[in-house]
Amino acid sequence: MQTELSSLVVDALEELKGRDIAELDVSRMTSVTDVMVVVSGTSSRHVKALADNVLERAKDEGFRPLGVEGEAGSDWVLVDLGDVVVHVMMPDARKLYDLERLWSELPNDLGRHEAVGEHHS
């Protein structure tokens, strides 16, 4: 189900031309989620549209979102789908918080994580 959900998320982001889509397998580092998807939007409106499209597509396929953080006009919206958490960010926020590096350097008992795939649009 996680693979199906992360594929749905990536498709929804690609559909609206999300930039630099990265999927990170964090299942060995946290029990909160299995996959984080990080994507950049070109404007605050684009960030909101990307997040809204992910929510709409997930609901259409029967997935129930657990929550959304961030609001219209913000530079970062988080969509929590349980097994997959989506971070839709403006490029400056993405660069500042550098989630990809943060999660790759987070210590865990089973060794470093490896990205499950990266897509660039």
From TrEMBL:
Classification via InterPro entries: Iojap/RsfS/C7orf30 (IPR004394), NT_sf (IPR043519)
Keywords from the UniProt entry: Cytoplasm, Repressor, Translation regulation
Gene Ontology CC entries for this record: cytoplasm
A Pfam family recorded for this sequence: RsfS
Compartments in which it is found: Cytoplasm
Primary subcellular site in the record, as a coarse category: cytoplasm
Any GO molecular function: ribosomal large subunit binding
GO BP: any one term: cytosolic ribosome assembly
Keyword Cytoplasm: yes
Keyword Ligase recorded: no
Family: Belongs to the Iojap/RsfS family.
Function: Functions as a ribosomal silencing factor. Interacts with ribosomal protein uL14 (rplN), blocking formation of intersubunit bridge B8. Prevents association of the 30S and 50S ribosomal subunits and the formation of functional ribosomes, thus repressing translation.
Subunit structure: Interacts with ribosomal protein uL14 (rplN).
HAMAP family the record matches: Iojap_RsfS (MF_01477)
Name of the protein: Ribosomal silencing factor RsfS
Organism placement in taxonomy: Bacteria, Pseudomonadati, Pseudomonadota, Gammaproteobacteria, Oceanospirillales
Gene field: rsfS
